[in-house]
Amino acid sequence: MTSLAGLYDAALLDLDGVVYVGPRAVEHATESLVRAGEAGMRLAYVTNNSFRTPRTVAEHLRELGVPAAEEDVVTSAQAAARLAAERCGPGARALVIGGEGLLSAVRARGLVPVRSADDGPCCVVQGFAPSLSWRDLAEAGYAVGRGVPWIATNADRDAPTARGTAPGNGALIGVVEAATGLVPTVAGKPSAALLHDGATRTGARHPLMIGDRLDTDVQGAHCAGYDSLLVLTGATTWQELLMAPAHRRPTHLAADLRGLLAPARAVARHPDGSSCGGWRASVRDRELLVEGDGDPYDALWAACSAAWAAPELPGMTKALAVLDRYVRPLGADV
Ligand SMILES: [Mg+2]
To answer: What are phi and psi of 26, to 5 degrees?
Structure first.
């Protein structure tokens, strides 16, 4: 059986919750990525973070033992700069609202960063930086209000920090949206631009997007037309996966990045349900039932298949009780 690393020619990897959590590597991530690379899979790291430069991200990855060069990192700042350059052409001025990662990405595309709406920008490119002030947002508002095209690196509303939840780029975009009544083009996940850049960078014909979030990584893969692998080492719980709407359902499921080295989890549909490994799931009287034994992630995948095939999401009380007994002890619900 061919592993996912053999089935796809490139992995587009989300970082936080997939490769690392804060300063620590996710368990099994480093050795799994090394082995996937040895199996011939090209690796690119696609991040909505527009503040850190690819060099900084690559250094962080190498400190964790993950094989990564600067050019293996694709940021939403680079995707936004690409969109801006396509719209305005080289040599054009871009009003940059953001930090060093965005400034260097814009320069790399041959655009000239400016800081004022009165400098004649061809576009506004907005990303997160902790130093952004009302004056910066006001400059964006002036330009956007005059009809200058507006491109945002990403629309993540919140930015988790050690002290709690802080406003992310989506929240800062919201300030300019509220003032102007206009909305930007977004480059980062779940928009397709960033993932397309990842595929271009790796020369991939058949890439696999790997992430921990349904609303950015998996939905982004749907938007880009790529298959996706959800790993349960980050933001998504297995309960949320079961309830996922169609546009946020992954192609593959794994506990963690060891899933790259295993064959795709095969699910079979039957007239009355779905089976995966030693497990069978069915919907009877609009209630999801799960029975069997073996790999608990097979149980979850069979349950997802049966629930998602039903005309409407079934009741889950009994299935949740079974899955809770098997899936939780493996650390899936983190
Ligand atoms: Mg993530």
So the answer is: -70, 140
Q: What is the pLDDT of residues 59-92, one digit of tens each?
A: 999 999 998 999 999 999 999 999 999 999 989 9
Distance 212 CA to ligand 1 centre (A): 5
Residue positions annotated with a catalytic role: 14, 16
Residue ranges in the chain modelled with pLDDT below 70 = 328-334
- DSSP letters spanning 25-40: EPTTHHHHHHHHHHTT
Residues whose CB is less than 8 angstroms from the CB of residue 38 and which lie 6 or more positions away in sequence, other chains included: none
Q: Is 56 exposed, middle or buried (0-12, 13-18, 19+ CB in 10 A)?
A: middle
The answer to whether residues 110 and 91 touch, using CB atoms and an 8 Å cutoff, is yes
E strand or H helix at 279, and its extent? strand 279-284
CATH class of the domain defined by 76-186: alpha beta
Q: Is the peptide bond before 190 cis (omega within 30 degrees of 0)?
A: yes
For residue 232, the CA-to-ligand 1 centroid distance in Å is: 10
**What pTM was computed for the model?**
0.94
- Token pair, residue 243, equals 């309830």
Give the CATH superfamily of 4-48+190-261.
HAD superfamily/HAD-like (3.40.50.1000)
List the chain domain ranges: 4-48+190-261, 76-186, 268-330
Task: Sort residue 103 into left (φ over 0), alpha (ψ -120 to 50) or beta.
Answer: alpha
How many angstroms separate the alpha carbon of residue 325 from the centre of ligand 1?
26
> Do 76-186 and 4-48+190-261 fall under one CATH topology?
yes
Cα(292) to ligand 1 centroid in Å equals 32
